[in-house]
Structures are given as structure tokens and as C-alpha cells.
Recover the amino acids of this structure.
């Protein structure tokens, strides 16, 4: 049971380049999320998905797109990378609201360090 | 202590001491609170949660206290160990978004806990 797997772990881009971050979970979770984490700041939600084929914007969605074609995968795309997108990106997944013991419990991947020059 | 939206505080303790990490939240509509632990180079990991109808909840070596009157949350770690050294985040959940039963999690900026042997 791998949990939440993110690829790649590190990436360096030049301004204007594009890339896709991959996230896969093997826990059959309904909900998936993409967060970014910047130094001295908490996690900020970029986009999320409450099920296969559905996505929605979070707090900081500008410059990013996402897709959830399969329940186990959630992709984050940067169409034209900017230095302001230098950050650590975390994917997470969770159950839908089944009961109190699972409510709000996100399972995170190990992160992708992205640098945009 | 930590407050959603402010700088990153630090806490240093000796091994074996008890640790108390504080968090102030601003949204009186939040009805659910979670503590996460993030070790260096890893994604956040769920520690413990508490609903707004509770004042206290205990786990293994950890206790979360909630004071809704002053909108304050704390995490107590008993007999702190070097392996507890990490950044600790509180997160709050308010009203559901997108028509789903799942609410949006807002993370605080974290507290750095350092445990000295």
C-alpha cells in the first residue's frame, strides 16, 4: 500500500515552460487536492476534486489547471511557468464524509520541489 | 503560539518535557479542527482532531484542547521525544463548499518544535 505518490520529486523549469505534476493514490479516496507550501506559510489549496471527472478552484488557482480523469489520479498542470510558482507542491487525498474518525483526515504525498528560473 | 496568517513561531524543549503548541483561529463558524505534523522533507501527517462540541480529546501522548470562547486551540505532547521534532500545523474547517458534505480546510502557518536530547 503506497498511499499517495507524487512525481517528480524535483523539477527546475525556465519561465514560460510547461509541465504536469502527477499524483496517484491507492486508497480508493473520493477527494483529492493540490496544495502549495511556501517558506513560513501554511498550505494553500490550489484546486481540489470531489470525484472522478470533477474539479474545482481553491484559494490560489491562477496559473494552474487540473484534471481527474481517473479516480486514483489527479494531475496538476502549469501551462506557462512563472517564478512566483516556485514552491513545494503537495497532493493529498481523503475519504468523503463517512464518519467523524475520517472527517478532515488528509493523506499527503511527499511533495514536489519546483523551481522556476 | 501559532495564529492563522502570522509568522512562524518556534518552540524548543528538552527530551522528556511536555510541549504545548498553541493556535488561534479567526473563523467563529469553524466546527472542526485538526493538528498535522510535518517532518523535514515529508508531507504533513494527521495527528489528532476535535469537533467544536468538544473541549478536549486525547490520543497517544497527545491531547488537543479547544476553547471556543477565545477561539484558541492547543496541542499538548507528553514526554516529548527527539522524533517529535517537526513543524506542527493546526487546520480549521468551516462550512462545506461545492455542495458536498466536505468543508474547506484552512491551515495555519505552523510552529517549529525542536526537541533537544
Amino acid at each position: 500500500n503506497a498511499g499517495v505518490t507524487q512525481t517528480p520529486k524535483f523539477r527546475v523549469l525556465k519561465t514560460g515552460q510547461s509541465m504536469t505534476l502527477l499524483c496517484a493514490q491507492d486508497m480508493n479516496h473520493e477527494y483529492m487536492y493540490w496544495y502549495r507550501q511556501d517558506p513560513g506559510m501554511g498550505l494553500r489549496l490550489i484546486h481540489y476534486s470531489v470525484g472522478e471527472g470533477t474539479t474545482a478552484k481553491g484559494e490560489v488557482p491562477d496559473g494552474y489547471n487540473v484534471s481527474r480523469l481517473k479516480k486514483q489520479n489527479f494531475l496538476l498542470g502549469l501551462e506557462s511557468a512563472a517564478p512566483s510558482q516556485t514552491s513545494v507542491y503537495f497532493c493529498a487525498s481523503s475519504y468523503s464524509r463517512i464518519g467523524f474518525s475520517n472527517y478532515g483526515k488528509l493523506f499527503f504525498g511527499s511533495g514536489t520541489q519546483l523551481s522556476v528560473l | 503560539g501559532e495564529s492563522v496568517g502570522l509568522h512562524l513561531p518556534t518552540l524548543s524543549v528538552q527530551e522528556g518535557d511536555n510541549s504545548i503548541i498553541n493556535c488561534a483561529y479567526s473563523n467563529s463558524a469553524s466546527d472542526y479542527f485538526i493538528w498535522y505534523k510535518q517532518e523535514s522533507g515529508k508531507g504533513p501527517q494527521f495527528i489528532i482532531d476535535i469537533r467544536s462540541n468538544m473541549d478536549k480529546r486525547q490520543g497517544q501522548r497527545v491531547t488537543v484542547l479547544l476553547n471556543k470562547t477565545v477561539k484558541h486551540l492547543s496541542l499538548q505532547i507528553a514526554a516529548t521525544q527527539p522524533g517529535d521534532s517537526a513543524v506542527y500545523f493546526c487546520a480549521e474547517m468551516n462550512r462545506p463548499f461545492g455542495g458536498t458534505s466536505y468543508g474547506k480546510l484552512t491551515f495555519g502557518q505552523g510552529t517549529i518544535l525542536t526537541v533537544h536530547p
